[in-house]
Amino acid sequence: LLVTGARALAKPPAVIGQKLHDVATPALLLDADAFERNCETLKSAVALTGVRARPHMKAHKSGALAKRQLELLDVHAAGVCAQTVSELEAAVDAGVGDVLLTNEVVGADKIERVAAAAKKSSGRVGVLIDDFWAQATDLNLALDDDVIVDAYVEVDVGQRRCGVSPSEAAPLALQISRLKNLRFAGCHCYHGLLQHVPSKAERREAVADVADAVREVRNALSAAGLAEFVITGGGTGTLAADRDSGVFDEVQPGSFCVMDLQYGSIEHEIVFERALEVLTTVLSRPAPNRCVVDAGSKAVDLVAGPPDVEGNRPYRSGGDEHGILDLEAGDDLAVGAKLRLYPSHCDPCVNLHDHWILHRGGVVVDVLAVDARGSGC
Ligand code: PLP
Ligand code: MN
Fold first, then answer.
1. ipTM for the whole complex
2. Could you tell me which of 61, 105, 157, 193 has the fewest CB atoms within 10 Å of its CB?
């Protein structure tokens, strides 16, 4: 036993064939039809453009769903993105052939895990680098002789988070290309602050500035004699603009497959459906104008705002395990009733749950582990 006090993971809240109404709550629901339609929509959005999709699994944190996305996207998928080593491991274990960890990997433990995942993978594993001596050389040393990891140079295209400047990308790529066990695969050019710009025209304008930076990178790489590289980046919000920019080889939308209220409130050029809900039970009806449900801040992330509630009942926080709904006169909601909540932000909400409950037509069709659940390790 590695962890003192560890017990078997909580019993799954549902079994296949069960009616949704009988599922133990709070439960993370995935409308499997809507999820599949969202993948089809992404596929049609990139088909015929030459741009490939690399869906980001940070939204669902499930190796099985990552694999399913690739099957649905077919030849239009480049692979998937992971944001944590656990996501990378979950994807490799599920048999995903090309996984790009869109983060720098620092520390002996994580480097060892990336090296082990790369050895285990039947395809490719990639990571981001923005510092040759502090990141690239350690990873290169940790890899077995016969294992090659794809190194993508992270370029800061305006977010001012990680990444080298566009002019530093080619020199770093050249340094990396001399390492024995790293292959310079391309550049990661992601601007997270643009994803939720409400106006699609303003988002397009902002992506045009990103595209100028990416073009500078492309030209510098070519001038340095690095002919084969991939430019990858973007998310659900900038998807159409990235695709049309002419400078991206891959796009990385994550939230598109489940969606959330934050994404529901901006203008879209490509429309995805809500597929994620949290199922909750009415625990108490202490007053005619108030009821209490069993989904508090441990079941539905509240940082980006309260969830929408089935029947337009306003939700306010009742603490960690409770939510309070203020009811209108005449609302006959009874103790034991089940309600669906639609979360404000998918990624942190999913991360609160151990299981995905997939359903079609009101019936559970699959129960999947959120196998990469965790804070970031
Ligand atoms: N790519 C990277 C590097 C990200 O960090 C994210 C989200 O944070 C995404 C893609 C996916 O973005 P979205 O969920 O907005 O589609
Ligand atoms: Mn997010």
1. 0.99
2. 193
